User: Fold these one by one.
Assistant:
Number 1:
Amino acid sequence: MKGPRSKAEPKKTDNKLKQKSAGAGKKPAKKEKLVKDPNKPKRPPSAFFVFMAEFREQFKKDHPNNKAVSVVGKAAGSKWKSLSAADKAPYQAKADKMKKEYDGDVQAYNKRLAEGKNASEEEESDKSKSEINDDEEEDDESGEEEEED
């Protein structure tokens, strides 16, 4: 039978080929992705990204019809390269300040991890048990009122 095969008709293959390629086509087992801690502090932006945030606002004002992100990035990159060290200094100072804050946050975060406490556990402990019970009672009362009507 010549022509295209139907879906019901199995494809003919050589058994010897199957045996040889059986191990060759296997993919290695997937490694499980590490789950990122949402409480971990985010890294601070570099001096260029501090500059980029300011430049992006100005660029949008000057070129309101431009919607391409790549154009903004290229323009910012060329402008950053053309700036002198003195012009880059204020952006570098802001980045250094954010870096110091980040370092303090990371130390505090690591200290919490060492103690075995997460921020979520601390938030739960802040809310007293009486407040939790009050919330449950309010839910119960609202449910009773609906049944009476």
Number 2:
Amino acid sequence: MNQPPHSPKGDPQALRHHNRLEILRHLRTLGPTSRTDLVPHTGLSKATLTGLTAELIEEGLIVETSIGPSGALGGRKPVFLDINYTQFHAIGVRLSGQDLHLVLTDLSTRVLAHHTEPLQGTKPELVAQHVARLAQHLLSTHHVPQDHCIGMGIALAGVIDSSTGMVLFNSPLGWTGVPFAHLVSQHTELPTVIDNDINAFAASEMLFGHGKQSQNLLVIANGLGLGSALITGGKLYRGKNGGAGEFGHNTIQPGGRTCSCGRQGCLEAFVSEWGILQTFLENHPDQDSLTMDDMLKLAHTGDTGAQQVLQEAGQLLGFHLAHLVNVFAPEKIIFGGEAARFGPLFFDPLQHSLREHLFAPQTEPLSFHVVSWHQEQFTPWVVGAASLAVKRTFETGAWLHPQ
């Protein structure tokens, strides 16, 4: 057998599992693909691939989707295969300081149902029970058998050790050292993955978004806070205890404005939603009742003061983003969060400042993508949470056994 690189040797069952997973991984990345075209991607022989795809079709894990045109020399028309994304489901949970947001998705993270409720308390055990109750409600209401749910992903702010399922620090909930993934899994009996909400957003973009075909990405989330996720070689860089990515808490003005973290002069305190609004209000103390939405309306209807604040914040963020790009050399920058709705008044000066301060070889072919932000309850954060469970599934192949 022609074995794919890094495939397990000496254990036929482990090798078979690995090869089946390789087929699914490549179908996820490539989309509908013929058996012939899968051969060079997977490293499998044509006979092995044909046999394994027949098994996967019989189990309902992949489907034949369409028939392509014959080649230049004629011959048999290729049949395209794709993952049967509707066969299994995932649950995503976004946990804020006040609310629980849940979605039920299929394996493509397409949202099938969503539900939001206020938190009924912040004690970890009570929150875990609340999550379990709502998850069971989604599954039963939409007639999804528990064994067709591949697991649950949970996203929340703070420092998260995803490998242990531990919330090391979360300020809104007042949690320190909480084994929250374990607590939830005890009540749901579902595999549960937990991570920082920006890492969850990055997982979503890597699976089915702008980062699907890329190995080196810089993901920036700006809204109520400012953070980043760095993907190198197709893997998320976590740093010690999952603490990497706190880009927003670099000090840019010692002794400056107090940040949400309690320190002074952080970048977040000047370019996040609340930081930008604070700058505007400092310049216009007579308008202290304005919200961010009010300020954006002013900017989009020609108010020069509001426009200037957005432009200067964009320039400032672009300047500091250039530092990250110069160090890590990503292929793409993906930008999300509530600030995605700021529009060209913010992003044009941001990109101009970014490119102006890049080391010349980094400027091209660097691409910049802004992920649309909507105010629906199933925002990119909670879809990203579901992506954590889906990503785990494609990495481990825990779903590959016949039901």
Number 3:
Amino acid sequence: MARVVVNVMPKAEILDPQGQAVQRALGRIGVNGVEDVRQGKRFEIEVDDSVTDEELERVAETLLANTVIEDFEVIR
């Protein structure tokens, strides 16, 4: 068994209201100097050796990420 991680993040040109809310909250709790916050999703998937890299890319692209507004990275 292997653990695969899929990170999904909003594309750079997409507004991230959740990240902006976190950034504003940091200032309210006295944490200064944070220039930007982007909030995304992390998926951890346990797979056996029969699952190919191409299949993992397809899973991420069709099921885990909305590729219109999100980028993804598969880490095997």
Number 4:
Amino acid sequence: MMKSAYMFLLTLAFLCLFKVGLCELCSTVRASRASKFVAERSSLRLSCEVRHCGVSGWTGGWFFQEINSTRFTRLTLFERIELSNYSSTAKSTHLLVDIHNINQSNAGAYKCMVTWPDQSISNGHVTNVNVTAAAVESSGRILSHRVLLCLCATMCFPLVLGLVWCLTRDHPPPPPVPPRSYTSFARKNEVKSKKELVYAEIALNSSRRQNDCPKRAPEPTVYSSVHFS
């Protein structure tokens, strides 16, 4: 009898612990405890998981605490803040917050807070967000790169001018072509054109020449004659 009562109490205690653990497992908010460093003008997304095990009637959202503040305020839709949620399973829902174009006013602590149907409240772990000036430093590096490029262009400019001057400067003109002489050309043509066979007879008016030739030769055909007196 004592043994049966002992087993009954043990089973009842186990059931109570299991029920409590099941309730705690279902009515919880899971979020990572972390510190994030975000550059200005960038974007940030935070997420937490609400395990409700299919129970309806709960409400929740994201809360924000500024650096110099001691209380959390609920985040609402803003031009740079988007709030959304989606159900990963039938027993859990993820709450999301997206912050765009971050500035120093967004630095602080963020956490999820859920109110259950029995008016109990569950809080997720806090995420500390630090806004850095990394974007400003990157723009400074970009400015230094631009200055370096300008210096390189300034140093290369004289070289380019020298190359252009060498390519475009006045070269010495070629030697002039001697003009052709029309007279010499005409004479050459005249010499080339006048190729004729000429027969000539030379007659000397001398008595001795007449005595040496007693016989009279037949008169030859004369094409041209030259007389010396």
